[in-house]
Here is the input.
Amino acid sequence: MATQTASSNAGYSEGSIRVLKGLEPVKQRPGMYTRTDTPLHIIQEVIDNAADEALAGYGKKIRVTLHADGSVGVEDDGRGIPYGPHPEEKAPVLELVYTRLHAGGKFDKGQGQAYSFSGGLHGVGVSVTNALARRMQVASHREGVVAAMAFEGGDVVEPLALRKQAEGDRKQGTTVRVWPDAKYFESPALPQADLVHLLRSKAVLMPGVTVQLIDEKKKDIQTWQYKGGLRDYLEQTLPADAVIPIFEGEGYAGKDADAFAEGEGAQWAVAFTEDGQPVRESYVNLIPTTAGGTHDSGLRDGLFQAVKGFIDLHALLPKGVKLMPEDVFARASYVLSAKVLDPQFQGQIKERLNSRDALRLVSGTVRPALELWLNQHVEHGKRLAELAIKAAQSRQRAGQKVEKRKGSGVAVLPGKLTDCESRDIAFNEVFLVEGDSAGGSAKMGRDKETQAVLPLRGKVLNTWEVERDLLFKNTEVHDIAVAIGVDPHGPGDDVDLSGLRYGKICILSDADVDGSHIQVLLLTLFLRHFPRLIDAGHVFVARPPLFRVDAPARGKKPAAKMYALDESELAAMLDKLRKDGVPEGKWSISRFKGLGEMNAEQLWETTLNPDTRRLLPVRLAPLDFSQTAAEMTKLMGKGEAAARRELMELHGDAVEVDV
Here is the structure.
């Protein structure tokens, strides 16, 4: 045995560890940094840089050229990228921007403020473009000088060269030409329709800026300039006639705003239609957020609160009808453009905004504006109320049909269950909460309409090797089964899910090691005895934060409470505060020992609110159940101590210990 271990270690030594430098990580794993179906996103990174110049008020034109040789050119008339030596790195700034990850002008929020509002915040974007391009040429026209460089595969092949502009040439801005490397993409062709939509939207969001697309092969030129902004764009893209006039508006925080930085806010145009697929487009600092995010949630909340207030004021709601946000939002088409000083996106491709403050920012701007508009246009308000009430009645009728199918003889619900008011499983969710104290906070902080809470006392039984007939001997397992309304079953059983009472079953435990153990025991229960619920996508794991950081005011940003899931996220958060110029130790860090330490408001904001929480769907790897069962038996079986010991000896060094 010792000989085998020695031979297996021979090929694994200090020299086996490889450190990826420069742009190598991007080339090794391009999918972590950008979309790899087509080169559109790496071209979008260049376009976004040009748009940021226009957003900052330094450019009026963006020109994109599809060259006959397959390359793409992007030209703006902004300030031009600085090209002199960086004061710390000593290399030309132009080179750093295109060859160094986490380098860029968008981080500077509180000092020189090169960009107060921008979409580029990771400092990764255009360097990824360079890494995944066969060749890239860059020219910066700035202060009478043209600075040029060329790269191949992310490496400098033509170092910085400076020349004076020709006499009378007052050109200013940056010109970039990219030859995407086909080997990194599933299809090397740029999707023309998506590119046109992207460029057109930039023109919509920046009234007065001219955006042009030149196709050399087709000898075609398209130019967009919208003076009417969001309203004109929405009118042209609506699937059907609007039932009331388009509601448009904008609002931004002033110099004396308490909660937000000066200039933060949103602009919107909203239309309601009875037919067709709604048009929904949102942007943050001109970046398209195709997966929505907290700014979309803020718009939804603002619309709902204003319409609900109007309905209550005029006593329009029929008896027995309960209005929900989706009833108002279901037939809404909108274009939303938010300005956020320090947006936090989900992932490098920025498809979804995660900034919690954006919900309050947009909702607090939209709600008063719509309330005023509805009360100035009462007939339009009543028509909108009629549309929302009709949607609510349809939803409730559908929920009643499900109730009838459940039939009689339903088991008495457990006394510890604090149920929700709604019976529509499309919205209902139950939280299986560790401990009575956490359960108390969850009960106070939840949305009573759609969220139920079932507190669990102590650690749940390890049910991996428990026979189905003996499951209900355990009180906690019995209560879970009765509360969710589905009987225990095996992977191949024909199961009736019509009695299911909640569309989401959420495991909510502490963020520490004990909480993780409870999480594993509950996941074991669902995998062994309720596998169809996992298959159907009904089981989720809530991720409460482990740390709270109280940060002082930073430049334009007011003091804020921020939450981190774990040590690594806390480290990244503190690093961001340092980059924002906050002196070491000026922030305070609190560690939640358990959910019971959170008050109801904190638990709602971080873990229960559908718009700001982090909820992970539980999915099975693409293995057959027998393979999964074999692995689980090794981990959870009573007679598997030797197998678990071997596993710990092999992988014990990868475990994070919470002492």
User: Anything to note?
Assistant: The two ends are 33 Å apart (CA to CA).
